[in-house]
Write a structure and sequence with these properties.
Elements: H1 5-24, H2 31-52, H3 63-92
């Protein structure tokens, strides 16, 4: 179970990041459920990308590992929500 904890933290942080981005960019918001789902996906992708380039966590559960998972997930979730929101807005025109 401990090996999945960084992923769980990234996914939850992604959901929070997606919703925070939706609150800050109301014109791109996908609604609470949409922001959460896209944020979860972005959180997982963001954490994975950081891990691949060597900036992510090594799966350790020390404070730096937890903060890395939170940051990677939150930023990934917010960025993906903004990208999907922009695409949705462009297609609606």
């Amino acid at each position: 179970m401990e090996e999945y904890l960084p992923l769980i933290i990234q996914l939850l942080s992604g959901a929070l990041g997606g919703n925070l981005a939706g609150k800050l960019m109301k014109n791109l918001s996908l609604g609470t459920l949409g922001n959460s789902l896209v944020g979860i996906l972005g959180g997982g992708l963001g954490g994975s990308l950081l891990g691949m380039i060597g900036l992510g966590t090594d799966g350790g559960m020390d404070i730096s590992g937890i903060l890395g998972s939170v940051a990677g997930g939150g930023v990934g979730g917010g960025v993906l929500m903004a990208i999907i929101g922009l695409i949705k807005k462009a297609l609606a025109k």
